[in-house]
Design a protein that fits this description.
Radius of gyration: 22 Å
Strand content: 15-25%
Structural class: alpha/beta
Number of helices: 21
Distance between the termini: 30 Å
CATH topology of the largest domain: Rossmann fold
Amino acid sequence: MSWAYRILFPLLLLLALPYYVWRMLRRGGYAAGFIQRLGFFPALPAKSPALTRIWIQAVSVGEIEAIGPLLRQLKASGQVQLILTTTTSTGYRLALERYAEVVTQVGLFPADLWPCSALAWRRIQPDRIILIEGELWPEHLAQARARGIPAFLINARLSDRSFARHRRFRTLSHALLSRFTLIAAGSAEDAARFRELGLNPIITGNLKFDVAGDDAPASEERLALRTALGFGTDPTTVVLLGSSTWPGEETALLNTVRDVRAAGIDLRLLLVPRHAERRQAVRAEISATGLPLHQRSTEGTVAPTGTVIHLADTTGELRRLTRAADLAFCGKSLAPHDGGQTPVECAAAGIAIVYGPHMTNFRDICRGLEQAEAACRVADPTALAGRIALLCDEPSRRLEAGRRAMAWHQGNRGATARTVALILDGLQASR
């Protein structure tokens, strides 16, 4: 089966190459460190017999943020040496910025082809490898198996689409997934899906609960942030966060802001598109409304007083900016989009949450939020506008939803400690 993957997967990569080249050129930043993608990983210090070298691969910004507490707790154990790789250029920059003092080396993940992967493996020489969430790299796992190196899948999840594919190709799926020594599932639903595929996962919970683990911001901090965003200090002003929005969702939010403001409520919009490279199209749409606009990437982090729309088209700031909001809409949840963007940071900040009907990647999380009466699912842009108007008009309802969201979040923390314990227990068992 290993050789089947080594033949089929490169063929699939070649077929997809034009699309990925287009994506790379569009998003930019891929030239830096490109040689690492061919397997030429930077030189590392000699391995210490007292430390286990763990190679952790986290694809992009979301995974890089999720593993912060995990990296720090593993480092604090004094038992490991950490090598962190990522796939996207934005993830790479964020990893360098946040974890340079935690890990021995930050690098770029090699192309999952035998020559590139084999070269990177010879240079890194890990004792363990860890993959995050749903990423499965066949050649990477084949290299681990050939060397007898344990492979862990943590915060493991299977989206509706990937689960359907795994069930359709059950034999190939089981051959690949069975290469993991440990699968630590992020939810009971994900664990059930892995079990249906013939695996034996352990439920540890979602690491993202521990990343967004701060208490609600102090009032002084929140006011300072809102002032810097151009929203002022008036307690009657309501700040709506558009969290990781996709095309069409900005339109719905802008229409909502226009209608609510026309009704006499001072509603402001902190808009954070999912893909920053869409900034020109989003800015043009905002400009057409005539509402005062500030674009963060070109005009700086301090906006003039009176800003109504703050376009936060930057990377790695969403969690901090969330703390300025009174309520939030989670993107990629209105048709035609599907999957959703995480509501966890919004819950941690203690703000009311609204999202569309298509939060399939966060089904367990949304079910818990809705049962706690901390979040509301709406059917379409019209219902979205109605719900936001209601939350703006009834501050007590909005504040209560935020309190419930924070309580729900606090009750779901602890995945990092459980995952770290499993990893370290595995190290002890192998010595």
